[in-house]
Amino acid sequence: MNIIQSKIMKYRILAIIFVLISLITYGQEFSVTYPSSLGNKVLDGRLLVMLSKKSTGEPRFQIADDPSTQQIFGMDIEDWKPGTTKILQSAAVGYPIESLAEIKNGEYNVQVLLHLYQTFHKKDGHVLKLPMDRGEGQHWNLAPGNLYSETIKINLNKKNGYNIVLSKTIPPIKEPEDTKYIKHIKIQSKMLTEYWGRPMYLGAHILLPEGWENHPNVKYPLAIYHGHYPSDFDGFRTVPPDENLKPDTSARFGITGYNRIVQQEAYDFYKMWTGANFPRVLAIEIQHPTPYYDDSYAVNTANMGPYGDAITYELIPEIEKRFRGIGEGWARFMYGGSTGGWESLAAQVFYPDEYNGCYAACPDPIDFNHFTSVNLYKDSNAYFREGPFRKTLRPGHRNYLGHVDAMVRDMNHRERALGSKTRSGEQFDIWEASFSPVGKDGYPEPIWDKKNGTINKQVANYWKENYDLTHIIQRDWPKIGEKLKGKINIYVGDMDNYYLNNAVYNAEDVLKKLSNPSCNCTVDYGDRAEHCWNGDHKNPNYISRLRYHRMFIPKWTEEVQSRSPKGADLSSWRY
């Protein structure tokens, strides 16, 4: 053996010793027991161990993007049998501190949770393990059936091991009941069931117009509110605010008693809805959760299936059939903010004949030249701006003054701890699940390396051709322009917390240049307005965000008179 070979062997032996020491020192800090008392099923999922320095509250509710976050570690678990124990390995992914070895000794509140996965046998032949929504809107810390432990206080010392027992199960969520005004519908989608290889459902909450039961021959337009998973129809309350309601404090808006403001706004809307001058329409909020997120982004995707078609051609016609909708594209319109803003614009672009107008507030990135603060086409790394001598982290979240409290890397590393293979159920992962092609393993192809931020340009090009809405509008305008003119309205604050205004600037430049026909679109900005400004220049954001229905329903019912076919019924529903 020569000197070089001898040195290589020496380094290999040292590396093996280091790994063994790491496993002995750190690999057995936490062991978690799944007791037979919690069930007899063999389980798959994501094991999450949380450490908190806060003196009160459960650690499962203390993981965030901002500096207030506590610590979490995650690792995948398969075939976990009742009565056995799993050990948190040193390779577990941590956030914000990446490695268990870096955690300092001291006192911590500790809690453990198992986020359950189910097995899906998809039509394309892939077998995936994913967390199906269970009525909570894809929140790992609230999902019914998930197992978790009591919060215990420990004095962490790396020489000792700690065993934590899963002792509780998150209970089921009660489904909302029908009332005079609000009805609920759930259907099994044939399209989605075929795609996923198991029964899949779509639902909606329907707000009936005043006088609906007394006008059995009237058919109504459909107002479609897009947003995150709604537990019921939001912002509608038939009784005054609770006099005994204990005032809360909104950290976001710096307001005490915001919960009472929310109730008052909901009651005021009820009075407007039932009043003499409010347009009579069917207003709906859709439930379309997926195994990746609390909703599907309302379009057809490679990883989640034909949700766009299922919503447009299965769910909406069924709602119109049951509740006397007009049932024609000219009599449907959409509005929403953030995710709902993107969905409203995307559905209008991809289904131009089926919808007659969209009001897209603070939409998720509609131009991937500004994918939040990342240019997917020109940048090589999503986490850093790189120069010859230094790298600068890209900002991910700011306030209206521009003060930054989270970086793009922070936000993605939190997701990386919560779930591998795009399974965190969080924002960057759902963009990936929505816009990416299917990877070789059956999970979404990453747009960038989740650890270091290196962008995959081939995937970025796929995103561009399929989901960059500005690019698609410009590319397809000769074919869809006549169907879209006058139907696009976009609103965003120029200090949007997630930098979503930057994509709108690009979109506005493109929309203004469209011709034959001209777009006749509206793009409006709120001065120093944060996420999610929606075009209201008269009220603060904490008020206007509660007024989507009252803002956009009357607006559309006026505009539709100039965008309806000859002979359309514009009067019978205006009683």
Could you please describe the fold and organization of this structure?
The protein is an alpha+beta fold and 575 residues long. Helix content is 26%, strand content 23%. The chain has helices at residues 3-26, 190-196, 258-273, 307-323, 339-350, 408-418, 427-435, 457-467, 469-484, 501-513, 541-544, 548-559; strands at 30-34, 43-52, 71-80, 84-87, 93-95, 106-121, 127-130, 147-148, 152-156, 162-165, 168-169, 182-188, 201-207, 222-226, 249-250, 255-256, 282-287, 300-301, 305-306, 332-337, 358-361, 384-386, 391-393, 395-398, 404-407, 488-493, 522-526. A hairpin with a 4-residue loop joins strand 22 (384-386) and strand 23 (391-393). Helix 5 packs across helix 9 (469-484) and helix 9 packs across helix 10 (501-513). The longest helix is centred in the first third of the chain and has 24 residues, at 3-26. The protein starts with a helix and ends in a 16-residue tail after the last helix.
CATH topology of the largest domain: Rossmann fold
Structural class: alpha+beta
CATH class term of the largest domain: Alpha Beta
| Annotation field: number of helices | 12
The overall number of domains is 3
Ends: how far apart? 96 Å
Mean pLDDT: 94
Q: What characteristic shape results from the CA principal axes? A: globular
Main sheet: strands, sense, barrel: 8 strands, antiparallel
Are there runs of 5+ residues with pLDDT below 50, and where? 10-28
Instruction: State the helicity in percent bands.
Output: 25-40%
CATH architecture of the largest domain: 3-Layer(aba) Sandwich
What is Rg?
26 Å
Q: What is the assigned CATH homologous superfamily of the largest domain?
A: Alpha/Beta hydrolase fold, catalytic domain
DSSP strand count: 27
Strand percentage: 15-25%
